[in-house]
Design brief:
The protein is of the alpha+beta class and about 270 residues long. It has six helices and ten strands.
Length: about 270
């Protein structure tokens, strides 16, 4: 599933090719995504210029003068750019094309159709999907003082708290597992029991692990414009995630697995207490 670093890598990959370009055509081949694609999307967008490509949580926000196109990659979605008028033939799960007057093509591909392509003409921060989101993890708004206040009265497990988009956006299952390992915090620890030192360490770990993942993804940006269909995603070198039964690199104890909030959690019972 694309997480925040993958979505940010996508944003950085497509932005140089579509910002300041004018849309000449929109072709919607499959409108039945997570939410229906509006029937008049083409007439709404054609002739408009892309002003910017931003990201909020895992939503890509393509800004135009009259509104914002919101794209969510869902569980299996990807965006590909073709610049030489030689895009490959349309495949089964290529659901939407945006063509620009300079010949550039932006193609949305989503086998499982859990992604979304939505149009919003109002102030984007007021969209129902965005209005209740917590701060961006790499922003100054997400800091130890903020996280301490959010956790002070929470009795749920810390892993569930930091994966809640109302606490902080973009800390998916992989990154929550890795950040908790780096800080020696057991994933089931009650949130309100964390002390100031642990909160500072956890805040720093979340920021660092996400930044490391984005930096690793940056080396694949060129793949957004080749015809092989590479997504530009990358594989973080996981220390604990998905490694149940393997030996902890710090102490040698087998990594264990438990389920919290219906999601698998991986941890070292010796290093995380």
């Amino acid at each position: 599933m694309p997480e925040l670093p993958e979505v940010e890598t996508t944003r950085r990959g497509i932005a140089p090719f579509i910002v300041n370009q004018t849309i000449s055509q929109v072709e919607v081949r499959q409108p039945r995504l997570r939410w229906p694609v509006m029937s008049n999307l083409g007439s709404q967008l054609e002739g408009e210029k892309i002003l910017s490509v931003k990201r909020r949580a895992k939503y890509l926000l393509i800004e135009l003068a009259s509104g914002t196109l919101i794209i969510h990659l869902g569980m299996s979605g990807s965006l590909r750019v073709f610049t030489d008028l030689s895009a490959p033939p349309v495949q089964k799960h290529d659901h939407l094309d945006i063509v620009f007057t300079n010949g550039t093509l932006l193609r949305f591909h989503d086998p499982r159709r859990f992604g979304a392509v939505l149009w919003f003409s109002g102030a984007i921060e007021h969209h129902p999907l965005l209005v209740n989101l917590g701060p961006e993890p790499l922003s100054a708004d997400f800091n130890a003082d903020y996280l301490g206040r959010k956790l002070a009265k929470q009795k749920r497990a810390i892993k569930l708290a930091i994966m809640d988009n109302k606490t902080v956006v973009g800390v998916g299952n992989i990154y929550a597992n890795e950040a908790l390992f780096r800080t020696g915090i057991h994933p089931a620890t009650t949130s309100m029991q964390l002390d100031k030192r642990q909160i500072i360490a956890l805040t720093d770990a979340i920021k660092q692990i996400l930044q490391d993942a984005i930096t690793a993804g940056g080396s694949t940006l060129r793949d957004f414009v080749n015809s092989a269909g590479k997504s530009g995603y990358f594989q973080l070198q996981h220390v604990v995630y998905g490694r149940a039964g393997e030996l902890c690199p710090q102490c040698g104890h087998p990594i264990e697995k438990m389920v919290l909030g219906q999601r698998s959690s991986f941890y070292c019972p010796q290093c995380q207490r």
